[in-house]
Design goal:
Blueprint lengths: L11 E4 L7 H7 L4 E6 L3 H4 L2 H11 L3 E5 L8 H14 L3 E6 L1 H14 L6 H4 L11 E5 L11 E6 L4 E6 L7 E4 L9 H19 L7 H23 L4 H15 L13 H13 L3 H16 L4 H11 L8 H18 L6 H4 L5 H15 L11 H11 L2
Parallel strand pairs: 1-8, 2-3, 2-4, 4-5, 5-8
Antiparallel strand pairs: 6-7
The structure holds 5,6-dihydroxy-NADP and zinc ion.
Length: about 400
């Protein structure tokens, strides 16, 4: 039986070529008088996007102050820097120009500006937010889905802990999405993003509860779409239509749509990957690709029909009477897809070699971060998590 649900996706989407030229209009709608503009390691400087955005703001008389230097697996220290700068400058809006790391940093700054204590409390889940400054974004990579999601993920670089904080306050007011802006991405980042998009739907798809046909159909269509266009972009990176398909899929994959009427999904791979991101600073999507097959082989017997549906409806596998055979063909087809776009299917291919002690430490940290057993298909305890890291370590 389908579960009851609530669904809210309040972010205004402004999609298409040249959409970033509408930034001043959008900030005016938000009544911003002074905006904190957050960006990453320089791609938006090199492409000229940042200069264009600031020029539009100047022309419209919107004050601004900039904070650059956000790194992938974004650091807590940059968040603190942003909160201090935002307070000193009296900003009233936070604009992220970049990818998930930049948007997540903007969200964390926005939580911090509305809070008297240490913003890390939220990420440690010892406190919860009751308000947040408004955030908007100009997206430059289709991946994390942070442009419409309620989440943000920050790494405390002193401890190596990468932690997520999700509340409805975290949903951005608007997202400017121009697929052309993603054409400067290196292929590895494009494909890591495509993997993350697909995984946001797979995490929701693999569940032990009954699902809605409509939710499954949307999810399966989204997964097939992402695979098709990721493969096109692997050889034709300037294909605007495929860039557009991926960008819109990224938002739909993580605004909650593909998990409606279920228990919300499994999310074990994400939790396991966050520990790898915290310890080894790997690209998030690539880390997910490296883990997924091992997770799937470890848990599929708990929900075989979901894995059969995935094999048949997403990968077009001919079902056989032998369930295991069909399931394994589906898992292998997913791994073949990862390889076809240059993504890893093991920790070695990802380029990391954790020691046994590090695998145990990641499992313990993951279990603690989840506040207990994690997963919907199978509830993983610390030893299960360790076993999956071991399976992936080849
Ligand atoms: O920093 P710059 O110079 O901008 O370079 C970035 C960065 O090196 C580069 N890049 C982005 N757009 C570009 C570009 N390079 C050339 N041209 C462009 N147009 O790409 C690199 C990766 O950027 P990043 O923002 O880290 O990518 P992504 O969007 O994949 O974000 C990953 C982060 O999001 C978190 C991940 O854990 C990770 O920390 N996630 C956030 C979620 C959320 N808030 O809902 C959910 C996800 O599951 C995920 O956990
Ligand atoms: Zn993700």
């Amino acid at each position: 039986m389908a579960l009851d649900f609530e669904f809210m996706t309040p972010t205004k989407i402004v999609f298409g070529r040249g959409s970033s030229d509408k930034i001043a209009e959008l900030l005016k709608e938000q009544n911003s008088r002074k905006t904190l503009v957050v960006y990453g390691g320089g791609s938006v400087v090199r492409s000229g996007l940042l200069a264009r955005v600031l020029a539009h703001m100047d022309a419209a008389g919107i004050g601004h102050v900039e904070l650059g230097g956000v790194v992938p697996n974004p650091h807590l220290s940059k968040v603190y820097e942003g909160i201090e700068l935002g307070r000193k400058e009296g900003v009233d809006f936070i604009l992220a120009v970049g990818g998930g790391s930049t948007i997540d940093t903007a969200k964390a700054i926005a939580y911090g500006l509305a809070y008297d204590g240490d913003v890390w409390d939220f990420y440690e889940h010892t406190k919860t937010a009751v308000s947040c400054y408004p955030v908007g974004s100009i997206l430059t990579i289709a991946a994390a889905g942070s442009e419409t999601s309620n989440g943000s993920v920050i790494t405390n670089e002193k401890t190596g802990s990468k932690r997520a904080f999700d509340t409805e306050f975290g949903r951005p007011k608007f997202a400017v999405m121009d697929p052309e802006l993603t054409m400067t991405l290196p292929d590895y980042q494009t494909q890591s993003g495509a993997t993350d998009i697909m995984m946001h739907t797979m995490e929701r798809y693999f569940t032990c509860v009954d699902t809605l046909d409509i939710t499954d159909s949307i999810a399966e269509g989204l997964m097939r779409t992402v695979m098709k266009h990721a493969q096109i972009l692997h050889t034709d990176p300037d294909n605007y239509d495929s860039r557009a398909e991926l960008m819109w899929s990224g938002s739909l994959a993580h605004n909650g749509l593909t998990g409606i009427g279920t228990d919300g999904g499994d999310w074990s791979c994400h939790q396991l990957e966050h520990e790898m991101g915290g310890m080894f600073d790997v690209a998030h999507g690539a880390g997910l690709a490296a883990l997924w097959g091992s997770w799937a082989r470890y848990v599929w017997k708990e929900a075989p029909q979901r894995f059969v549906n995935f094999a048949v409806r997403v990968h077009g596998i001919e079902p056989s009477e032998n369930t295991e055979e069909t399931v394994l063909k589906g898992i292998e087809a997913q791994e073949a897809f990862y390889r076809s776009i240059g993504m890893p299917t093991s920790l070695k291919e990802l380029g990391i070699a954790p020691t046994d002690a590090q695998k145990k430490e990641m499992a313990q940290r993951c279990y603690a971060a989840c506040g207990g057993p994690q997963g919907s298909v199978k509830k993983l305890d610390t030893d299960d998590m360790y076993q999956i890291y071991c399976l992936a370590d080849h």
